[in-house]
Specification:
74% helix; binds fe (ii) ion; 0% strand; Ferritin; 172 residues
Length: 172
């Protein structure tokens, strides 16, 4: 059985993943409002991934015999203040860096508690966060290069429209 400390940390992470989904949905709506339909899609797919992370963690907890807790999810109203593509990607990057620190803390705790199953479970997320931060960084750099060129921004938006959600954890 999973320790109380780790169960609490994973419950908090379920909440953080739902908050991430909430934040990405809010940014997605804002992108739509700004007229960036491709960015709306990209952020919406991002929100779907975060919900898949939350339910995956829920499954790990119940499989390990823990009873997860479900506290309030924080508001994501500040996404309304993101008035262009660049501030949106700055927010994506800083948020993913923050989530990386949360995941790393869980990995450290799993190590400390000698919980090999949770350590293995959370290792997937350690790798996932490397990718998340890299993608956010790459897109932010690209936006900085082209932000004064509406034609190129339009092309980037078209590129972002092509992203489709692939469930990282298809039912076994
Ligand atoms: Fe996530
Ligand atoms: Fe994420």
């Amino acid at each position: 059985m999973i320790t109380e400390n780790l169960a609490k940390a994973l419950s908090d992470q379920i909440n953080a993943e739902f908050y991430s989904a909430y934040l990405y949905l809010a940014m997605s709506a804002k992108a739509d409002d700004l007229g960036y339909k491709g960015l709306q899609n990209w952020l919406f797919v991002q929100a779907q991934e975060e919900m898949a992370h939350a339910t995956h963690m829920y499954e790990h907890l119940i499989e390990r015999g823990a009873l997860p807790s479900f506290g309030a999810i924080a508001a994501a109203e500040d996404a309304k203040e993101l008035n262009d593509v660049r501030p949106i990607f700055e927010k994506v990057l800083s948020h993913e860096e923050y989530v990386t620190s949360l995941i790393n803390n869980i990995a450290s705790l799993a190590m400390k508690e000698n919980d090999h199953a949770t350590y293995t479970f959370i290792s997937w997320y350690v790798n996932e966060q490397v990718e998340e931060v890299d993608v956010a960084n790459t897109l932010l750099k690209k936006v900085k290069l082209i932000e004064n060129n509406p034609g190129q921004l339009y092309d980037l938006d078209t590129e972002l429209a092509a992203r489709v959600f692939i469930n990282p954890f298809p039912a076994a």
